């Protein structure tokens, strides 16, 4: 699994950061993104369910998961 955030859709609500702070972070400028350490990297299995949960609850459908 790989994950990214579509910045054109994200409303920076912070839900994904609350659900999975290991992968998502709020930047100093107030935008939310995947942490640099996980960009274009495979998400470890133990975090996949939390990333999926963040995806499913994103109100803007901005989280893109690639299997
Ligand atoms: S849950 Fe969705 S809209 Fe909210 S900060 Fe995360 S990616 Fe952006």
TrEMBL record:
Molecular function in Gene Ontology: electron transfer activity; iron ion binding; iron-sulfur cluster binding
Transmembrane spans: none
Occurrences of domain 4Fe-4S ferredoxin-type (ranges): 1-29
Superkingdom of the organism of origin: Bacteria
UniProt keywords, alphabetically: Electron transport, Iron, Iron-sulfur, Metal-binding, Transport
Pfam families: Fer4_15 (PF13459)
Entry keyword annotation includes Protease: no
PANTHER family per UniProt: FERREDOXIN
The protein's role, per its UniProt record: Ferredoxins are iron-sulfur proteins that transfer electrons in a wide variety of metabolic reactions.
Protein name, as recorded: Ferredoxin
Species assigned in the record: candidate division WS6 bacterium GW2011_GWC1_33_20
């Amino acid at each position: 699994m790989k994950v990214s955030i579509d910045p054109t859709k994200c409303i920076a609500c912070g839900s994904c950061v609350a659900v999975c702070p290991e992968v998502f972070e709020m930047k100093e400028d107030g935008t939310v993104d995947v942490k640099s350490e996980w960009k274009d990297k495979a998400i470890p299995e133990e975090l996949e369910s939390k990333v999926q949960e963040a995806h499913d609850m994103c109100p803007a459908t901005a989280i893109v998961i690639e299997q």
